[in-house]
Design a protein that fits this description.
Blueprint lengths: L2 H4 L21 H27 L8 H19 L4 H23 L11 E2 L3 H10 L14 H33 L5 E2 L10 H22 L3 H16 L2 H11 L7 H21 L5 H26 L1 H4 L11 H8 L4 H16 L5 H15 L1
Length: 376
């Protein structure tokens, strides 16, 4: 649109003398791209500043730093194989920069008393699955003394099918809980991954991981399967970003050191990202959008935790019958459909496992839990 068109008949809303200056104003698309690029600076920069002012990283999960840096490295590698919107590439570079600063600050103010050897060992998944199978052998389908011909057989088969469906559901819940325990700071991960005591180990791992990704990408950058693998892996890892913070808030049952501005920046970042993916660009894959919605759903759950812990603690969180810290089983029971039945099943499984093993898990759990709480 030219300036004479705007000023036709002398009816322009903008004086003709000012029209040439409009060309110097930034384009709206450029402003959105700029906002997307530097959003991590604000959202995580405020967190870094808060840790520095409090002189403690208590209440903040450093798993967030590892998650975002690994995901950003994979996204940059994916760009070299299958170029996407360059704004997301710039955002990944900025993310690595701010997460490096945040990780350094968090480790510096973590506290000298931190000792990962005091964390609770992960319960053996094989024993939990076997215990579920032991209690799901169709026992509710036996004991019927009368089966009248075809009708009885049909009812018996239907009962067995239903018991099988319930067994599959219980196994899925058990596996999900085992996977989520890897994100829970209460448990000791294999090889103490991202729970190391020496801060230098974190930087060595990140440097080694980046080096391996660079070598593999240089070798397979023309391989479509490799590009898809690192692309999906990066999205999946980033989508799981809120899980460590969810489990930490569930464990501590306190928002004392979790700032509202961080939560709002996460939700705002989700809205900005989804708006950008849906309306701001056309060169984007559907998997980016799905991963964005999944991550936003987890951030919404953190918002639910924040509100209930702050305003409705007695109704949602206080348990007068429990003296121990809540476990990951609690939150899985709340997030999945099984609800209280899942938690009850977990307790039954734990009791059965303790009875059928020679190791006294109960005493070791209490001892490790006490050590963990002293560390925190």
């Amino acid at each position: 649109m030219s300036s004479p068109d705007l000023a036709t008949g002398g009816s322009s809303l903008i004086p003709e003398d000012y029209l040439p200056y409009l060309s110097y104003l930034p384009d709206l698309q450029h402003l959105v791209n700029l906002l997307m690029t530097f959003t991590p600076m604000f959202s995580y920069g405020t967190t870094c500043l808060g840790i520095y002012r409090r002189q403690t990283s208590m209440g903040f999960s450093i798993d967030i730093c590892g998650t975002m840096m690994i995901a950003s490295i994979l996204r940059i590698a994916y760009y070299t194989c299958a170029p996407f919107e360059i704004t997301l590439l710039r955002q990944s570079m900025v993310m690595i920069l701010i997460q490096s600063v945040l990780l350094y600050t968090s480790l510096k103010y973590r506290g000298d008393e931190y000792d990962p050897s005091k964390l609770m060992e992960l319960p053996p998944l094989a024993h939990e699955v076997k215990d579920v199978s032991r209690r799901s052998r169709g026992l509710s389908c036996v004991g019927h003394e009368k089966y009248d011909a075809i009708g009885g057989v049909v009812r018996y088969v239907a009962c067995l099918v239903w018991e099988w469906i319930k067994w599959v559901g219980d196994v899925v819940v058990t596996v999900v809980k085992a996977g989520m325990r890897l994100f829970d700071v209460y448990y000791r991960r294999p090889l103490l991954f991202w729970q190391w005591r020496d801060p230098m180990t974190y930087w060595k791992f990140l440097a080694g991981f980046a080096g391996v990704v660079v070598v593999l990408t240089a070798w397979f950058y023309t391989n479509e399967s490799y590009a898809n693998a690192i692309g999906v892996s990066g999205l999946f890892i980033e989508a799981l970003l809120p899980l460590p913070q969810i489990l930490m808030l569930n464990r501590l049952q306190s928002i004392e050191n979790f700032k509202l501005v961080l939560l709002l920046s996460w939700l705002g970042g989700d809205c900005t990202k989804l708006s950008y993916l849906l309306f701001g660009t056309s060169n984007i894959s559907l998997i980016f959008i799905l991963a964005g919605f999944f991550q936003m759903s987890l951030d919404i759950y953190i918002a639910f935790q924040f509100i209930t812990l702050k305003y409705y603690y007695d109704h949602w969180w206080r348990d007068s019958n429990s003296d121990s810290a809540p476990s990951v089983d609690d939150i899985v029971g709340k997030m999945l459909i099984h609800g209280d039945d899942t938690y009850e099943l977990s307790n039954m499984s734990r009791e059965s496992y303790e009875k059928n093993t020679t190791m006294d898990l109960s005493s070791r759990s209490n001892s490790s839990q006490s050590s963990y709480m002293e560390t925190v």
